[in-house]
Amino acid sequence: MNRGNRIALACVYWAFVLYVFVPLILMILMGFKDSKFIGFPIRSWTLDWYTGVFSDAEVLYTFGYSVVIAVLSTLISVIVGTWIAVLLEGRRFWGRAVTFGLMVLPALVPGIISAIAFRIYARWLGIEPGMGAIVWAHAVHNVPFVSLVVMARLSTLPKSQIEAARDLGADPLIAFLRITLPYLVPAILGASVFCLLLSFDDFVRSFFLGGYEPTLPVLIFAMLRSGMSPEINAIATVALVLTAAIGIWAERFTRRTNKESQI
Amino acid sequence: MTYDASVRKDSDGLSRATGDRPFWGRLAGWGPYRAFAALVTASPRRQFVILATFPILWLLTQHLGPMLQMLRVSLVDAYPVAQDAPQAFTFDNYLRFFGDRIFWMPFFRTLTFAAVFTFCTLIITYPVAYFLARHVSRRNQMLMLLLLLIPFWVGEIVRTYAIMILLGNTGAVNLVLKWFGFIDRPIPFMYTSFSMGIGIVYLTALYMLLPLYSALEKLPKSYNEAAADLGAGAWTRFRRVTLPLTLEGISSGCTLVFLISTGFYATPVLLGGPSTTVFAETIAGFFHVAGDEWPTGAAFAVIMFVAALLITGVFQRLMKALRKGDTA
Amino acid sequence: MKKLTLNRRRFIGTTAMAGAALASPAYLRRAAAQGSGEVNIWTYNDFVPESFKEQFEAETGIKVNIRLVDDQGKQFNLLAAEQPNPTVDIMTVAGHRFLQFIDSELLAPLDTDRLSNWGNINPTFSESDWATINGEKWGAPILSGMEVLAYNTELVSQEEAMTWDTLFSEKYSGQTAYIIQDMMSIVMLMMGYDGNMVAYMDDPAKAAAIVEEAKQFLIEKKPLVRKYYDSGAEVQQMFVNQDIALGHSWNGPAAALINDGFPLGMTIPNEGSYGFVYTYNVANNAPNVDNAYTFLDAILASPEIGAAMTKASGFISTYKDASNYLTDLEKKSTSFPEEQLANLQFFRAEANEMKYGLVDPAVEAVKAA
Q1: For residue C368, which of B11, B105, B166, B213 is within the disulfide window of CB 3.0 to 4.6 Å?
Q2: What is this structure's pTM?
């Protein structure tokens, strides 16, 4: 590869990093502003907004509540999404195209529409609004993302491996658990990160399906009514740091285990 | 999460698959499991039925159910209705769109914006994905990719307000430009299609980056080297080898981004100007402001949805033809 | 492989546990409260002062569950989706939106005889013409807002801010913003018509012509405006970023900026303006009606509570004597000179169906133009 190209590409990458991080840095910075509104100029600084986050039981509870919802809905999405992907990938059957269409459907419906549709449907099914309903709506919404990612990975699985395992006497179930599933792990992990993120960030579904406990985005929306205060920036920053810490920890875990399994 | 690691793992998994490890061997030999496996895998047909039953049920009840409810709402004359009030079937909600030109403008604007922003996202993220997949050591790829994902953990609204702080008249960009003496009076970036584009690309970059990255990452380096050996220049190599082989990633990334950007609501509303109203805003208006026009809102949502699907369908066909043309 | 699954399980396990640990206090709280009664409220952030809530819970043993909402439309949608068995007892509806809720049978009429503190509300609000519909009262007024012209005092003079015309002048081209639905009513008022459209209820043709005129005016002035906005936070941010020099606003968000020391002023211009009132309403088929009345009576008990709501929201309290509990700056940001108040009238709901049937498409047309 030629050197000039490489440098140019590296510049593009870092420019992109700058683009995605500058708003973030501004957000963090504004959390230190001693005023009820964000924006320049910053005349005086304060730590109160950040320390306030840690002493505000409601915010911490809301964060925990959102994390639990994200984890539970991701678990469901991953199981169902993988199952659907296994059904769809590399199989020809009557109605496959329709099945595929149904699979992607929730990802394509605009948020507000899907939220109201879920609310009507939940009422029709008799599901009470609250944590269960939010988990359910998030899980359904995230299934297509899991399925798509897993299908892409599955399509690169060498058929010969399954066949070899079958030849050696493994039944399809064991062959799946021992060959296919491990092969899918990177895709499943990637998809999980995605699902966690979508769930954690979701406002509309959480609002329409939630009960009296707000999720973090719902709380932020409500607070926004009295103005975009540095307090919101501080909350978002703390949430970011906590979730990023979890993310980095998870990444190091997988990397370490990958390394171990390579030996 | 590196890919080659698990491939290697699979090949040694192969030797283990026959049950030489105690757990799997014992499981395979365990009576009840054998009976269960025999029952489940008795014939390919039964296998398929068992595999397919749960997903099909899920798709019908969970994915289709809410949408059918929506469709039903779009075909009635009043919803929600007071108890026991009459409700009649009607196509008027759909006809309203075709009968009134004022809805066409935001509709076509949304499709145009979505297409343009999708293209911008592609142009911006392709080199990024390329750099990550081809020029960064495998060890660091995941870390650098994760680095890019961090900002996406921040909620849409907070991020959008951060962009206002960036682009406003007293925003960071204007402050810096002024400080360097490039400008005297601030440049009004905000509330234009530019600020809206900045915000939307920010939201969609991730959906484009991941498919592109995985397509590029799968591409064997040897192809490029072979092309280089045959005397192809960098641009030719890219155009004749890399680009055609990543068309699938481009196509799936663009499809995803296009469909998602037709549904954006908060960001265009907050960052756009008086002349950038998008269709999602029109739809939301029927649910929010007017409140009692759910059926019209639902019908409009169906129209938007079908239009977006049609466009991506045509796009996918085109990409398929392009791919075939290239390999032929 | 086994190790990986194990680790992953452990990872997810610990995350869930950490979440559950963080979450547990509230679950405990909830479980503990189940013995006594509850009251479920949908309201805006800070509309129920925290200190009042704690005191009320301690004194009555009734647990107050608050669900934060951020706009009227969402409350309506949510409540409509919950019918006929809502989970909510008390909602926060703006007075001029009553009719929509009442028509859909979402509200129960308010029995003011059950509220011993009803008299603590300033009669300007409790006995106003909009407050009685179908011969019944539908809500207890708590805070009052109005459409004002807000301006950056370093860029715009008060004299200029005394007329809505400045909002459409070439001088401030590209430095103005407004909520377009609200502006339709104001433009009608500017043109000398009844923005509530009650006067034209028997003359739909005239009503349509007026809305058309207002619509054409806004389309003509569209090149001058920077932004059609929706929420208070947006207009505040535009002022702070100096993206605008003046704009139409509700008094609440503008007052919050003034209280923070931002050089902002607001007026009720000479052409007049509209006011609205937030009320607490009891939902139709509310699950805890008795607790709802207990709560309403308690929150109306003291002007101090009203003042606390004003401090948090920037809107004007409907309680008699609430201003006695405000600081000078807070008083300034929540009061207007008498001569300006004389130009204020309230939004009325009687003609809403006709009005919004005409105004909503007009708003779409202005946006699409």
Answers
A1: B105
A2: 0.81
